[in-house]
């Protein structure tokens, strides 16, 4: 599988991936130039997410994406209201360790969903929380207040995969 696309053109690779993309999307707030976005894009490509939506600043550090942003649909919207409009009838589920959040380990993630992540230091904004059908947390057992946003996105994507994807 590693060399499957070795001699393919970029547009042919994207077209092939589009035939197999999963029904979840990822959104991440980018108000303070979050460096985790590249990692989120790379992980979204690994799990074959439908798209990654960046909310806020258009500029982001592509280094962490390791060129996978060429193969992943990356959309930009300015506001949470635009994200809500972009989502249409697809529910948005936030991922943040806020009071009242439900454990992602026991939450039934919808098949069609946009998983929304906040910035590394501040988490989801109040506006983002209000746009969510639910907010899930990821169980933590150590002394840190939170885990890296890129890591949290990977855990949440894997939770969706475990619930909905067929094994390759």
Elements, N to C (H/E): HEHEEHEEEHEH
Which CATH architecture? 3-Layer(aba) Sandwich
User: How large a portion of the residues is in β-strands, by DSSP E?
Assistant: 15-25%
Reading off the top of the CATH hierarchy, the class is best stated as Alpha Beta
Helix content: 25-40%
| C-alpha termini separation | 11 Å
Helical stretch tally: 5
Give a short account of the largest sheet.
7 strands, parallel
Could you list the spans in which at least 5 consecutive residues all have pLDDT below 50?
none
The number of E-state strands comes to 7
Write down the overall geometry.
globular
Which sequence of strands runs across the widest sheet? 3-2-1-6-4-7-5
User: Structural class of the secondary elements?
Assistant: alpha/beta
Please identify which CATH superfamily we are dealing with.
SPOUT methyltransferase, trefoil knot domain
What's the mean pLDDT score?
93
Protein name: tRNA/rRNA methyltransferase SpoU type domain-containing protein
InterPro entries: Alpha/beta_knot_MTases, rRNA_Methyltransferase, SpoU_MeTrfase, tRNA_m1G_MTases_N
Domain tRNA/rRNA methyltransferase SpoU type: 26-158
Keywords: Methyltransferase, Transferase
């Amino acid at each position: 599988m590693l060399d499957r696309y070795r001699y393919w053109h970029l547009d042919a690779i994207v077209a092939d991936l589009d035939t197999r993309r999963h029904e979840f999307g990822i959104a991440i707030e980018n108000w303070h130039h979050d460096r985790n976005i590249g990692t989120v894009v790379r992980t979204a490509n690994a799990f074959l997410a439908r798209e990654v939506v960046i909310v806020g600043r258009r500029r982001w550090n592509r280094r962490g994406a390791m060129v996978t942003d060429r193969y992943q649909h990356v959309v930009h919207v300015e506001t949470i209201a635009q994200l809500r409009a972009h989502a249409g009838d697809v529910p948005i589920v936030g991922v943040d360790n806020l009071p009242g959040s439900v454990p992602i380990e026991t939450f039934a993630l919808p098949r069609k969903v946009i998983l929304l992540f906040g910035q590394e230091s501040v988490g989801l904004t109040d506006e983002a929380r209000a746009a969510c059908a639910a907010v899930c947390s990821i169980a933590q057992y150590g002394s840190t207040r939170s885990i890296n946003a890129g890591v949290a996105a990977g855990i949440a994507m894997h939770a969706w995969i475990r619930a909905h994807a067929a094994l390759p």
